[in-house]
Amino acid sequence: MEHEAPIHTFMGLQFNLSNVLMITVSSLMVFLIAVLATRALSMRPGGMQNFLEWVVDFVKGIINSTMDWHTGGRFLTLGLTLLMYIFVSNMLGLPFAVAFGHELWWKSPTADPTITLTLAVMVVVLSHYYGVKLKGAKAYGSEFFKPFKLFFPLKLIEEFANTLTLGLRLYGNIYAGEILLGLLVGLSHQGIFAGILGIFPLIVWQGFSVFVGAIQAFIFTMLTMVYLAHKVADDH
Amino acid sequence: MQSLILGAATGGVNGGDILFQLLAFIILMLLLRKYAWGPLMGIMKERQSYITNEIEAAETNRKEAEQHLAAQIQELKQAREEARAIIENAKKQGEVQGEAIIQAARGEANRVKEEALADIASEREKAVATLRNEVASLSVMIASKVIAKELDERSQEKLIQDYLQEAGEAR
Fold first, then answer.
1. Could you write out the DSSP letters of every residue in A41-55?
2. Of B12, B29, B41, the CB nearest to A56
3. Which residue spans adopt a coiled-coil conformation according to this UniProt entry (chain B) (predicted)?
């Protein structure tokens, strides 16, 4: 059951090559889906264009529910890419896992805390950047002392807590899903009977994981917009 | 159970993964913005403006149609009024003409009657004149006869008076 990660060191940096592979695969798939769907754009959308337009409207709805469109419009690309990338990443680990020897190669890239925390930190850093950019350094800084100065340590902790929860929630959900999938598949090692019995919970859990993967992608995008709105909005 | 502790990370942080994920995501975002989201949002905006235009056009068309309809109704009303006026005029004219015809007929009848009366009168005049002539010749004849018959003066006078009276009554 236990798999090692194919870690190699290159230019003083540790690379988990499975992550590198899966990030590339996810990115490629998202890119292909989005580009193929928008190859033949028409005023009367059909098929994939319809689907992507629905996604765009969905993300627009998320943004509109957290901030006004005047400030939120610029985050549409970010939200769309996040949603699609995380969703595809979550789905990648579901149908199968590929291991060579003891090294696990095919899995969800989001089942690795390094990846999810990278995304989370990126989002939080972006929120600080846009906070300073849109409100000015003074207004941005004063946010840390509201409603009064005593709150400063709490606000500081909040930033780190936000980052951690944002990244670890996604990681935990997807990783746990894959662990359980692995365990259920592992039943077949215990004999044919156990394997056949294990198929049913396996199917159920895969279905549930699709649901969880979609929900987590939505939650990540939603919270991204909430954090951004928190930093960017003038009044709250 | 090593892999259960914060995933598959084995000691230390995978700096390479972080870097790679960051780069991959940023590149993906930029590529998608250029090749997918940009055109998609472009066409969505285009469609939005198209729909807006269409709705506006429909609105103007509807307003125009309403105006036309109102004008048509107005014109129809006017035409009806005109038709009624024409009929009224015709009726009035007919009455006037009828009246005129009747008047003319009445005049003509009167004229004919007058003429007839005048004719009758003149005929009578003529008849009287003829009668007078006749009476004159008759009286001459009678006178000659009476003279021939030898009459006394008184009876002759009476005779002439009688004749004259007779002639006067006949007139």
1. --SS--HHHHHHHHH
2. B41
3. 55-93
